[in-house]
Amino acid sequence: MRLFWLTAFTMVPLAANSVLNRMAIGAGLSDPVGFAMIRLVSGAVVLAVLLFAARIRGRLPAAGPVGRRTVGVLSLLVYMFGFSLAYLGLDAGVGALILFGMVQVTMFLGAALRREPLPASCWIGAAIAFAGLAWLLVPGSAAPVSPAHAAMMALGGMGWGVYSLAARGAGNAVADTAWNFILSVPVAMPVLLLALVAGVLPEITVTEGGIALAVVSGAITSGLAYALWYRLLPELGAARAGVAQLTVPVLAMAGGMIFLEETLTLRFALSSLLVLGGVAMASLGGAQRTIVSNGS
């Protein structure tokens, strides 16, 4: 039960990233690239402070193996920029479905490749959760799907899934997340500057409101929230973690109703029950299996 509630609590700030992103980009307070870059830098600064505090206590973790760090940095960048760029041409529901559908596929593929034991409750819970999410987002959606932006969101979902899988091998989740954010900045900055100079990207325009939203997204709902999330991953396993992340679109839509004045519908309420019920089945069933295994 502890694992279920900690997972549910961690999904809230992750869902807030979608709301903050839509608030900034949808209202024209920031362009997608500028928002993503400020979000990345803000997360790096906050997590660097945590690393510095660890150094003062004499426990500064190293950056870790080059291979895993490279995967972490690149997959983080793919998620960050793919996520922001995709919302230029996708409505929130379609974007969320593509993103977390790809996360689901990536995480389950990772579980299969690792030959991770997948109890029946996990598969049943995944099916119920995905069915609830599909029922909520697909029927009645009138927003046209841009192939280019759908591909961006799909890449973002793959990035998040690969990043989650890579983080499972970390001995210190906070340090691992911190190094990924810190090392991502010097990788992304030169590429963006060259793209701007070459005219590949339009001029970056960010208002004060956009900066504030990006800083909150980077420092709190990304950096700190990710550190907590990846601390839970070893207990969850790849498959159950993929199912749990399916709650984020539902929570993000709830945030949209509260902060963006979206309308509550019966379909939303019923779909939420299906999604959260499926996640509970997968998480609690997996937790019971873990207890039995450790006890033996």
From TrEMBL:
Domain EamA: residue ranges: 152-283
UniProt-listed InterPro entries: AA-Vitamin_Transporters, EamA_dom, EmrE-like
Pfam families the record matches: EamA
Keyword Nucleus: no
UniProt main location, coarse: membrane
Listed transmembrane segments: 36-54, 66-88, 94-113, 120-138, 150-166, 178-198, 210-229, 241-260, 266-287
Keywords for the protein's UniProt record, in alphabetical order: Membrane, Transmembrane, Transmembrane helix
One Gene Ontology term, aspect cellular component: membrane
Coiled-coil regions, chain positions: none
Membrane topology: Multi-pass membrane protein
Compartment annotation: Membrane
Protein name: EamA-like transporter family protein
